[in-house]
Amino acid sequence: MDTPIWTPSPQRKQHALITDFQAWLGREHGLQFEGYEALWRWSVEQPEAFWRAIWTYFDVPAVQLPVRMRSADPMPATRWFEGARLNLVNQVFRHIHLATPALLYDSEAGGCGELSWPELQRQVAALAQTLRGLGVQPGDRVVGYLPNIPQTVVAFLAAASLGAVWALCAPDMGPVSVSDRYQQTAPKVMIAVDGYRYAGKPFDRRAALDEILARLPSVSHVVWVPHLDPQAAPPAQAASRTVLHWASAVAGEATLHAEALPANHPLWTLYSSGTTGLPKAIVHGHGGVLLNGLVNMVLHNDLHPGDRVLWAVNTSWMVWNAHVLGLLGGATVVLYDGCVSGMGAEPDWGHLWRLVGRLGVNTFGAGAAIHHACMKAGIVPRKITDLSALHTVCSTGSPLAPEAYRWLYTQVKEDFWLNTVSGGTDIAGGFLVGLPTLPVRVGEMQCRTLGARVESWDDAGQPVLNAVGELVCLQSIPSMPLYFWGDTDGSRYRESYLDTFHDSEQRPVWRQGDWLRLVPRPEAVGGIIYGRSDATINRQGVRMGTAELYRVVEGIEEVLDSLVVDLEYLGRPSYMALFVQLRPGLSLDEPLRQRIRQALRSGLSVRHVPDEILQVEAIPKTITGKKLELPIKKLLLGHAPEQVLKRDGLAQPESVDWFVRFAADYQARNAPVPA
Length: 675
Known about the structure:
By secondary structure, the chain is α/β, with parallel strands linked by helices. The protein contains 23 helices and 34 strands.
């Protein structure tokens, strides 16, 4: 749609951080830009100047400044901020003087409250002193089995201040998935809860934790956080190690001493979904996360000191890390630990919005699936709570349907900035982002991230505009992985991102694995994500991302959720199956099937009408809400379930059972005829 659904007011533009940054570039460097696209082009054509400007504008605290911003080596060998010695934690606590809270929290198990900046620093310093006393040194691994609570933020910052390598899994993840991740890095310390409360129900996780620790002999110390039950005793495996209770671990006064580290010192390990093989253990560095975080999470998100920011996240999702990076800009990070649809027996999709109103949240972010669920439920947030403080709504995780854009602007409020972003765990940030100084158009992300030379390429490796191609990034950005843990020769890293495309000088080009259409607009080049390129639908040579099909199917009133799989065979017709989850009490009859087919025929094309439509009880997803498109596709292609499915990483593990049975039956019916 060419007509914007929202246009920023002059006041919003004037107040924006990007406006101040551009004015600073003019004053300090004599640089003037005609619009955002010119600024973006300078940022990718003059990366040394751009990243030095970011460093200087944000006055990044460092014991030693870099001798240069980046080396000329192509990906993945580019070296960033050489010579610098710093610690991400120092940027966080430069905001110690703020009178606004550092953290606000609301937890089904832990209640509500806040931590001031001085109290957050005190707890971080005390825990760091405790960990140092346990022998934790730079490079040691400290891991968490923790929900979205203040203790988790404290643990991360304390580990980072020591130069320890942090990793985190939510306590709703099962023992196999957690141990698959943590066994790779052999952690020394684990910080863990006894359980959590979700939708009003208690979940004791001590048995799962016991099994996890049995698989992690490297863990010599456990910091015990009795979150569900204050009297809960640690499980047997924990008791066989050194156990410290959280209250004593953060007691007393201590001086925070953040280790001065090289910019490429590892900060944390993030993990891929792990649907096949062991999850990729992706390592990012202090300097890269800090600088790219200032661009992505502060500048593009327009976070000002004291802004209250709430993201509805699970701690296993990279967006938790991104949310906490709001502290880099002095924002108040609002933590929610509980069910996003309330605590009653029936879903209450107004629950999060009432929390936003009650806490005076300024920026509210959620996965697109949550926005879609609220829309489907007919929630009218503006009628159920006071949203006067809310000026920004964010969405990520999967494409946000155009209908959801319209729902947000009619049912939430008319004047706010909708910031839809797309990036990945891989870069701990975004490739396509927004700005409050640009108009919002239905279905589009507003711009490409400063410093990220993003293009859309066709199969021949040529850039395209207004056509769907592969999302690529032509040059390194600071938060690209340092390496994958255990990938000694870098082969898995290169295979994951850098082996598909090369530029005219045969330098590797980053391939993200998303279908992207770049849309030139007068103010900037926007973008539309069409889903994962490796789960694309290719019917008679016409390619389409799955997100387009879901938008049509899930626009039908009876359909709650859906998943599509397109199988291609050499020498045989392709087979496309559409699986639908209907509203409770409904059955998939032939009239509904015909309505779905007609909607796809008219909304997409006759090529994209499925060969078969089947009803399922639930669509299988990861705990971060991603549909299991590729694993289900591989099941139907004959792969063994244990090779493609990691049940402990699923939101509803039982949801895959039907698909396993269906795949076995499909294989039996479609076995090749012996020659």
